[in-house]
Amino acid sequence: MQKEILLNNNITIPCIGNGPMIPEYNANKFLKSNNPVAKLTKRAYNKFYGRHKVEANYIDAVAHSFQAGFKLLDYSSSYGDGSLIGKAIKKSHIERKDLFLTTRISNKAQREKTVRECLMEQLKGMGTDYVDLLMFHWPVTGYYLDTWQQMIKLYKEGYCRALGVANCHQHHLEEIFKTSDIIPAINQIEIHPLFTQKALIAYCQEHNIQVEAYTAIARMDDRLVRLPLLKEIARKYNKTIVQIVLRWHIQNGVIPVVRSLNKGRQIENISIFDFVLTDQEMAAIDSVNINSRLRYDPDNCDFSIL
Q1: Of 215, 244, 214, which is closest to residue 228 (Cα–Cα)?
Q2: Is the pTM of this model over 0.85?
Q3: Left, alpha or beta for 94 (phi > 0: left; psi -120 to 50: alpha)?
Q4: pLDDT for 137-162, tens place per residue?
């Protein structure tokens, strides 16, 4: 199986991605410990200890993901300080041209109509003059069509090699089609065996839009990971349930995005190219679907909190 997929504007994208967010650190827990350093004020801890440690660990983990084989980095302006990505790229010693960097326009930037500023700030932080894929994070009602037009300008100016969207239903895509002859190269949506979204995937494929999956392993939901079916398939191939699910995505033509900062799990997540699920196994995993959405529905959510 090819590890890269051709998009509708003739550039290629890796078939699996890593999209780690910067984790929160718990200052309160530390301050209640017996560590003598905990006598510092919470503010001092956050400034000099907690943030430094979390950011250093994040840089190290993202650099490791590149070294482990992940070339697609899925990022967003809402995830935190983009300069950490730039530092991770430098630490990994991977050349920029060998990476596929994705970032998104935040909902806040959409509402404030600062799309260009949002991207430029991220480019500066990442230490690059372009991203491979620029998306908007959500189709914010009343704003996403204008955001798409601003993204097209950035695309034509060479600040991104491809344009994509996220969390778009069919009707969002149809509205975008009316505004421009540039079709999104990607639609990133929630997909996992509990929520397969077959109809939306089929619609995207019909219009030559590549689908990416977030929440790709259903947040390790018990309703998924305790299934005897997946345990049996995992034993057959000497793989983990996560690896089986990621392989299921890829064989369905969907790009899964995982969000791990754990080095061992990063290696596990990328080690899915030495086996192939049978048609019967694929169909069996498809049948697990119970239409259980674990994240927000873009037709029924408060964009101001996302």
Answers
A1: 244
A2: yes
A3: beta
A4: 999 999 999 999 999 999 999 999 99
